[in-house]
Amino acid sequence: MKTVRSVKKKGTRTAAAVSIGSKLLRMRIAQLRKGEVSELESLQYPISIGHEVFSNTKISFESIRSISSALRGFSALMQEYGVDSCRVVATTALREAVNRAFVVDQLKIQNGVQVEILEDNQEKAFVYGEILKQLPERLKDGNTLIAYIGTGSIGVAVIRDETAVFSKNIPVGALKLHDMLGSLQASSIHFHEVLEEYIHVAVGRFLSVYPGGFPSISQLVLADNGSALIASLCKAEKKGGVYTIQADSVRELYSTIRNMTPEKISFSYQISESDAELLYTTLSIYLYLINLTGVKSIYAPQVDLLRPILQEILLPKTRELAFDRVRRSTLACVRELGKSFQCNMEHAERIAELSGLLFDRMKEIHGLDSRNRLLLEVASLLHECGYYTHPRQYSNSTFHLIRSMDIYGITENELYLVASTFLPADSLEAADSLSVRQQLIVSKLAAIFRLADSLDQSQKQKLKNLKARLDKNRLLITAESTESASLEEWAFSQAVPFFEDVFGVHPELTVRDAPVKTAKQRKV
């Protein structure tokens, strides 16, 4: 067990964050000092659940006992530091284990901890946020490709103007690659070719779905647990916690080791055999991304999942800032997806605007939060995507398309909520998979969306200066128009009954003739 210890200062709030990874159980303890998060302790304990899950799909009893024992040691240290709050998260290995529910239950019984299994998009949002904070000046020109190479998956995002416009989670990581193909290494002198071909197909398949074709990339940012080792072997420069690794140095290093066994790599570079295994596969991924983008150098920041988690615990306001950043990227990705499905984006943007307006005016009766508002915006922007594949049954088509999407910062469960807003309220397909609370959220989002959608039924944005307010049991909506709004008024009347069933409030729409401006007024 490795540990790095600092000095504790009394009288301030202390928090701990623990991650259950594929190879390591890690903990950081930090304290809030003068508005800054100051780290007190860093601990890590080796585990091997990644090998177990990627090879046999489940975590063994021995590993559960080992994790439980280590967590007891972590808990003792937390008590010593007087930790006020603790968050325990798990990533790919536990997420993909078929017996994950049993493991989580046992750790709760044996250790009294509630393990939160992060979805891929949650984990990557934390990591991308850390990268964006470290590299703001370097990400302003052109498109930047960020790749977070985990043990079990690769997260990729295209960043433009410091905002993600595309993201994808690829279920192939450095350790998983080794466990899948490692048996070939001893029997094939062309193992590196097998590995390179597999990466080309596995990663390329996911990147090929980029709307309009994969863009030209100006900068490549790679983050992984082995980047410091690769940077050291490539003699990379380090500035401000970020390595700059030359692409040719990566090619040279890979060329040197590609015909070596892990044992020989371990001996040659004085590293553990497990690190040697990951070095081989990680370098293969590096090389693929270098060749894909054509960059001359790579930025490799040192990122840690636990640091932003500690920030959220000790500085709750940073959660709001992080959410604002994620929201911008989420909506940017959604707009790109909408364009790729040939949605009428002018209409979609109007519905998103109107949905947001109604949501804000109804706060006292809907009981939803800012996260739900974001889901409503996503639904509004994507509500026509089903027409692209099945115009006659576009609602069902929209449901299935959205469920299959990767959207930056949105979890699979949240995507299901968004998709379900397009199904009939009594749909068995949705109801069977949603809790009662989730069904309530979906019904509320659907009722607001349908009312907003009716207000631009002609898709001509006829209604201007639209306002809404609650008046006891009525939602009063007023608007102005220089054209006939008969279609909107009819569609509105069709959306009213469901809205009333959900909220017990009667919506009323009043459309007035917009004042006609004189020539003199128009000049002013």
Automatic annotation (TrEMBL):
<protein>
    <submittedName>
        <fullName>Phosphatase</fullName>
    </submittedName>
</protein>
<dbReference type="Pfam" id="PF02541">
    <property type="entry name" value="Ppx-GppA"/>
</dbReference>
<dbReference type="InterPro" id="IPR043129">
    <property type="entry name" value="ATPase_NBD"/>
</dbReference>
<feature type="domain" description="Ppx/GppA phosphatase C-terminal">
    <location>
        <begin position="333"/>
        <end position="473"/>
    </location>
</feature>
<dbReference type="Pfam" id="PF21447">
    <property type="entry name" value="Ppx-GppA_III"/>
</dbReference>
<dbReference type="InterPro" id="IPR048950">
    <property type="entry name" value="Ppx_GppA_C"/>
</dbReference>
<dbReference type="GO" id="GO:0016462">
    <property type="term" value="F:pyrophosphatase activity"/>
</dbReference>
<dbReference type="InterPro" id="IPR050273">
    <property type="entry name" value="GppA/Ppx_hydrolase"/>
</dbReference>
<comment type="similarity">
    <text>Belongs to the GppA/Ppx family.</text>
</comment>
<dbReference type="InterPro" id="IPR003695">
    <property type="entry name" value="Ppx_GppA_N"/>
</dbReference>
<feature type="domain" description="Ppx/GppA phosphatase N-terminal">
    <location>
        <begin position="29"/>
        <end position="188"/>
    </location>
</feature>
